Amino acid sequence: MIDPVAIDWGPDGKLWVAEMADYPSGIDGQGKPGGRIRYLEDSNGDGQYDRSMVFLSGVNFPTGVMAWKQGVLVTAAPELFYAEDTDGDGRADHREVLYSGFVTANQQLRVNGLRYGLDNWIYCASGAHNPNFGKDRGIKAEKLNKLIPLGSRDFRIRPETGQLDPQSGPSQFGRDRDDWGNWFGVQNAHPLWHYALADHYLRRNPHFVPPDARVEVIAGEAPRIYSAKTPQKRFHSFHLSNRFTSACGISIYRDELLYPRSDRESPLDERKIEQHSFTCAPFHNLVHHAVLTRTGVTFTARRAKDEQTGELFASRDRWCRPVMTRTGPDGALWVVDMYRYMIEHPQFLSDEGRAELKPHFRAGDDRGRIYRVYRRDRPPRTWSPIDKMSTRELVKTLYHPNGILRDLAQRQLIELKDEEAVELLAAAAQGANSLGRLHALCTLDALEKLDFTILWKAIQDSEAAVRRHAVRIAGNRGEWGLLKFMLDRMGIPEVDAQVRQQLAYSLRGMSNADSSRLLVQYILPMGPADKYIQAAAFSSLHEQNIELALAHLHNLGWDSDHFDECERELLMMAIVMRRDAPPLAALNKSVTRHAKFPQLTSAADWLRVAVILDGYDKREGQVLSGLPAEDVKLLAAMISDATDIVVDQDKDVALRAAAAGLLFRQHDRRKADLATTAVALSPQAPLAVQMAAIARVAAQRNADVAEMLLANWSTYGPTVRREILRQLTSRPTWIALLLSAVEEGDVPRSDIGAVTLQKLRWVGDEELRSRVRALLKTASEDRQAVVDEYDSVLRLSGDIERGRVVFNNRCATCHRDGELGHDVGPRLAAISDRTPRGLVVSVLDPNRVVDSRYINYVAITKDGRSFAGVLAAETSVALTLREADGKEHTLLRSQLEELQSTGKSLMPEGLEKELTPQNLADVISFVTRPQTAVSATLEETE
């Protein structure tokens, strides 16, 4: 084979290979498609592939292949299509586009994957961040003639029906699952993350903001790896040599040949099983192995004992480029080696890099390898194709230790729809082998032949994963009695965390009285440590059960910060969900839950009232209209009292900050609230009170609040100034006032730093942006000239201590060094190789090469506010932007008017206006001080 990037096995024994022969820029260098789909056959049954056939050619940069029905599914952006040989000549003569509209950006960042799930969906990775927000944007399901919004999430499909369903993501290249149905992804410097939350459940409640579904399993950005050869020359990201920068092609090992498990044939506790993951790093010519252990809902990872300073697979050959790993049906680990001189796409190279490497862009396009890795004492098994197996043999294969064969057998049984299989599957679902029981259960479910008795036994199974999938299936089938049995009779404390999470998902369809009671009684009280279980519970709340859930919560009445947080979350959802309902008894009770005013003296009480008011504010003009007159009067008294608390220096700081949440709640108190806010922002006020007051100001739209903030500019400290600038740059009318204040000298130009300028360049209309450029003299467009101007830095002697001060003042907003700074840009703890020249370029010309993880996005909300930052997390319900100083803004999609990528790095241009050459020399000395420096960048000599 040539240029292999993905493989899959068919039930007939064929090995299918996607060959990206057109990488990186087309076979002609101008984008001409030249990819191929090939299959290998073992023609004589000796266990060795001896025949090769090109099934399909001229494919546009294929990234994934999966044997399906009588042909194959192929991901080749902008399409996902099905191809089949209908005349038996070994070559495809039928091609059907199933889905279209996938992003055709860099070939490394395109739709890929194709893995079969226990739920009988096929899962795919989306490739990279592509929020794709707006009308007429999405993926077209051709069979349904329907446009489906996807954004940068991964997805699952059912090719027969044309269904496409977004999933948590994105994963860049490779999305895989373990034997038990847990899904994992990867992205560049993140070698493995687990998707702890399922998107199709989260989107049911658009009023709840869930935590990021992705959990770092291999902890830390760009973890250390150990190349077997001298590092090759880098043209950017100099700090990441010998660290993950090209993580891809992940797999979870699904056999016992490499790593024996003595308990495979007996009931087992999945939580205690060690699993094994593999992540490719083609830039460093290696495959990393990690040992996974489940912890609660998710996983942690560690290096194997004998791989503490080395890798399972590492080549001294610079051309070796492993891009995918798979568990083979023979039990070996298969490694797909594209085998190229260079693997990095020219798009990500600097001008210098593109010029130097241009002769090598396609070097190796006539080569490719696939390796099998196995133990010397346990050679690969021989295996037989399953397409000719009897039904009985297929069911028996569900017990096989190899996950690939079990999946193929499950698919074959579903496709055959043989009535003989039902009785055999029923027996397997109650057999001794836990994986066999799991596959039999899922196969019966797909065949719609799952007997209630079998499901009843499965929901009490000794293996947690079987119980988990039984709960999923019971919820899909509406078997609510089974779920009540689990919760009311088995007792939630003894139930596995993943089973608890699935219960929280599945309870939504139960009667309102039961679902609200069970969710609150058994799920919500588990504590903040179980945030993924709590998120699943919140996803099951809806308009009909939310008020009952709130009442159940009050009846429990446990006393803790977690209780207060849960109550506030439920309060907000209840008010927003029930916007057309009459006054809500549970809400009114919450206002005065502990005692009648004025005895509400705790910070939690004031926060509760603020949340209620926020909820009513979101009811589009229905402010307080749902409450009885006596409660409106009570709230007015509370607001008056809160104003006094905010400025009372004898009160507790937390209480004053919480009371600030009641400012600007009544129109007839506006002038008084402006005066109170001015006092709350005085130098004498604690920082927490000042920040709470600014937060309330940010929720306003009027110009008078911006004028008040600007009037007292000279009295603010640095932290407060940064926060006020963040808010003033969130609305075009406020930006205009800020610019006027700069023009008049009330706000010094020097206070508008590079980070603020970066945001101002992308918000407001063109007239406003022109005014920004003219007034504040934004960064020079000729960044190379700026780099050349700072050439003297390379000859200056830097001072580490002076550099520490510069770093703290100018760099720590985005970068972390030890305990100093914020995790927005790359962590300096990852630095193991860099040059002063490279760092000068990175600081002064951050957009020369932009890492997709640090691209700046601008979001405009329906109330006219703008937010900017890197896209830190995304679900179907919300997305999170992280600003340069680490401040995060999580926005519900229902709030969004527009979201667009600037195409630029979050790191601002124009830092030369804040750094002298000596400043830059000092900060380079600080970040390259001996305790973090390891080696200089070297270039391998071929």
Layout of secondary structure:
Blueprint: E1 4-9, E2 15-19, E3 35-41, E4 51-59, E5 64-68, E6 71-76, E7 79-84, E8 94-100, E9 112-116, E10 122-125, E11 139-141, E12 146-148, E13 154-158, E14 163-167, E15 176-177, E16 183-187, E17 190-195, H1 199-202, E18 214-216, E19 248-252, E20 275-281, E21 286-295, E22 298-302, E23 313-314, E24 322-327, E25 333-337, H2 351-357, E26 369-373, H3 391-397, H4 403-416, H5 420-428, H6 434-447, H7 452-458, H8 464-477, H9 480-490, H10 497-506, H11 512-523, H12 531-539, H13 546-556, H14 561-577, H15 585-591, H16 603-617, H17 629-646, H18 653-659, H19 670-680, H20 687-698, H21 703-711, H22 718-728, H23 732-743, H24 754-760, H25 766-776, H26 783-789, H27 800-811, E27 816-817, E28 820-821, H28 836-844, E29 855-861, E30 866-874, E31 878-882, E32 888-892, E33 896-905, H29 917-927
Structural account:
This protein has 942 residues and is α+β, with helices and mostly antiparallel strands. Among the domains are: 362 residues, Neuraminidase (6 Propeller); 60 residues, Leucine-rich Repeat Variant (Alpha Horseshoe), CATH 1.25.10; 131 residues, SH3 type barrels, CATH 2.30.30. It has a six-stranded antiparallel sheet with strand order 5-6-7-8-11-12, with no helix packed on it. Strands 19, 20, 21, 22 and 23 form a five-stranded antiparallel sheet that branches. A five-stranded antiparallel sheet has the order 32-31-30-29-33, with no helix packed on it. A hairpin with a 5-residue loop joins strand 31 and strand 32. The protein is globular. The C terminus is likely disordered.
